[in-house]
Amino acid sequence: MRPIHAHPATCALVIAVALFAVTFAFQVTTRAQGSDPRHGREVFRFDTFGDEQLWTTVLRMHEVIPTIDPVTALGVGLKVDVDALPREVLDAILTNANGLLTDPATTVALLKLNAVVGVKGQVNDAGELTSIGITCALCHSTVDDSLMPGIGGRLDGWANRDLNVGAIVALSPALDDALKNEFSMWGPGKYDPRHHAFDGMNLIPLNSPSLPIVIPSIYGLRGVGFETYTGDGPISYWNAYVGIGQMGGKGNFVDPRIGLVIHQSPDLVTPKLEALLAYQLSLRTPEPPRGSFDRQAANRGRQLFRNEAGCATCHQGPTFTDVLNGASRQVPLLHDANEIGTEPEYASRSATNRYRTTPLRGLWQHPPYFHDGSAPDLPAVVEHYNQRFGLNLDAQQKSDLVEYLKTL
């Protein structure tokens, strides 16, 4: 669903509407500074924005989930909040009493306890799952595995790189085989936000074939500016796009740059963007684990980063990005794909057709790297730029740069 050639007056209207959308998101950002993050945490963790209209009414996932046991659910990356589990449930899980972890009924019981991170289920008195919705935490939270792998304390803002959204959605009995196959190819930790949108009744095709991107961590966002890979807009713009068009929440979203217009009433998303943003901005970048990097090598790498390697030319200041160096706060500074040597197709499906400089935060925590996950680790990132820009770094310099990146 791409914009078409139009009369100049129409183009002017398109630009005006797009600027209105971005300006609105900036206004939300400004107001969020004084909001209570605790309210936003509840929105982030537990608010579905009415997206049961997609996950229950259209995809009929409430028919599928009761057939899935906890072992299988954990295997596709779903997480369980240990703090939501009563003591007797914890003990039963640890001992796998009566085959608890291989019983699909346990999955429904965990949903009734509101213990599955990012998934909200309604269970009736007969123990039947009647509806399913999802929240922001599904993709952008994980757990610390304190009880066992996949079950532990919440880590909000950490991308769930185990989550196989495509495999989960492909279980829907409402989708045809071609669409299921396409979703199944995404793999863990990836999602394609430019493949389709949901307008409250139907899945609308946007682009094909699918090009899934790495689910990003969302901590350390304060002061960054344009947070998406392609700099389409500030955080609240993207929250609205995802909450309405991807999660399936009820709301209004308009961006003629990508030819997408969704109107639904009542709007359950827009009134909560301010609180949601306040919580997102409160999520701090996790410190690297003690002993996880060589401090002397990292000090040498910092000098390389700032000087010989030239990384700081684009990765500037405390946020390590130059995206706010545009003509104004509403206009991001972006880069063509060929300038940085990354694949161009995903950018061509965005509202900007370009990429923003990645803000480097918590790099030790979230491989793979680049929007498409094409760099499996930090040495691969350094080698990419070493070759792209002809830096001629030797093995020791590349190793020192990696050690520095581990500290961010």
Please name the defining characteristics of this protein.
disordered N terminus; mainly alpha; 17 helices; Cytochrome Bc1 Complex, Chain D, domain 2; two-stranded antiparallel sheet; globular; 12 strands; two-stranded parallel ribbon; single chain; 37% helix; 9% strand
Q: Could you characterize what this model shows?
A:
- By secondary structure, this protein is mainly alpha-helical.
- The protein has two domains: 1-283, no CATH class; 295-322 and 357-405, Cytochrome Bc1 Complex, Chain D, domain 2 (Orthogonal Bundle), CATH 1.10.760.10.
- It has 17 helices and twelve strands.
- The strands form six sheets. A two-stranded parallel ribbon has the order 1-5. A two-stranded antiparallel ribbon has the order 2-3. Strands 4-6 form a two-stranded antiparallel ribbon.
- A hairpin with a 4-residue loop joins strand 8 and strand 9.
- The longest helix is centred in the N-terminal third of the chain and has 25 residues, at 8-32.
Provide the fold topology.
Blueprint: H1 8-32, H2 37-46, H3 52-58, H4 61-64, H5 70-75, E1 80-81, H6 87-95, H7 104-112, E2 119-123, E3 129-134, H8 137-140, E4 141-143, E5 151-152, E6 154-156, H9 165-169, H10 177-184, E7 190-191, E8 196-198, E9 203-205, E10 213-214, H11 235-246, E11 253-255, E12 260-262, H12 273-282, H13 295-306, H14 337-340, H15 345-348, H16 378-388, H17 395-405
Parallel strand pairs: 1-5
Antiparallel strand pairs: 2-3, 4-6, 7-10, 8-9, 11-12
